[in-house]
Amino acid sequence: MIKLLHLQNLKAWRDSGPVRLAPVSMLLGTNSSGKSTLLQSLLLLKQTAAAPDRTVHLNLGGDEANDFFHFGGFDAVLSHGVAAPRQFSITLEFERPEGERVRHARFACSYGQTASGAVVVQELSLSTVARRFRVVRRERGAYAVWVDGEAQPRGKGPQYAPERSIAFSAEALALLGADGAHLQDLSLALRRELEAIVYLGPLRRQPARDQVWSKSAPGALGSDGNQVLEALLANALLKSDTQGATLASVSHWLQRMGMADQMGVRQVGRSSRYEVVVHKDGVVANLRDVGVGVAQVLPVLAMAFWAPAGSTALVEEPEIHLHPLAQAVLAEMFSQVSQQRQVQFIVETHSEHLFRRMQTLIAQRKTSPQQCQMLFVERRGADAVLVPLEVDAFGTVRNWPPRFFGDAMGEAREQARARAQRMREEK
Fold first, then answer.
1. Which InterPro entries match (predicted)?
2. pTM, whole model, 2 decimals?
3. Fewer CB within 10 Å, N or C, the chain?
4. What would the pLDDT profile of 274-283 be if each residue is shown by its tens digit?
């Protein structure tokens, strides 16, 4: 699970400060405030770690088939107006179970630009509570390798350049001898943490009416949910210990939302094509023939139960096209799944209903402020600023930002004033 994220000089974030993350973290705030950049920074590391070229320092995207996000060039990522040194940095802390123990680790990396315009690692640090390994860029592309608090680097040279932002080179590992094995384990833990990130963007693709089943399960649902039908077909039709489990869980939550009684799959005639159907009030209809809200929330629900235990799910605007009750029920789903399946959710949302239900769950002791972190993002001039909301054990927010969800009290006052004015005029 990712425990902390810290951005400096990255897009709207001059300095986010240490952003504490919980099993469920909700990012709230106005449009274009910087919320999405917090998620994108994790996707930037994930797509870099998965880059086919191990010598790449940072994969800013551009491959539509394999990358999550295209960040543009170095200047598009660097905060506006940053003077020398022109660098940005990403820090994260995470913990992963390894056998009977949990590994706590920290990754910190700063990036600069060469004279030719390439993005390069300026300093990479991987550390645990007891150990720290660093590789620092020097002149002419050489790197120095440092261990713990030693007064001198273990070695210097271009062969020690880091790989994919998260790993030391084979030459650096060999240089470190017995320490190299420990460092390699640390890099592997970081890679696994990034690989465990799953992402669902704010725009979900409309599902097909039916499709040929490939008789295999997809590796991912896709950032727009384009593989959700394939995943549901695989879960319903492949023989396994968990056959039908995802479909049953999705059906349960659709029923809780009042959107369907059940969801199923069926063969189209005698062909090799299958369709996903929705049962509601005694009527069975193709997924394309019911309200768009079902199709839009389906990838959110499927991701929650398709993602392996230990995953971190980044979800943008899960409430899109949902009525207020369904939006509120999403809070219950995120809370329950995070506890039962150990899936971490980092949710960017504009839904007051989702937020309010999470407050209620805290008051009901079904979750806690430690299990659910509420983070408000706002713009102050050109800079994004993060305000952790102070939520007590009764779900009450102690530092409620002004005009958090608009001005409900102000609207009520204006309605009363207008009503009184009209009554006077009509006498």
1. AAA_GajA/Old/RecF-like, Bact_Antivir_Def_Nuclease, DUF3696, P-loop_NTPase, P-loop_UCP034888
2. 0.93
3. C
4. 999 999 999 9
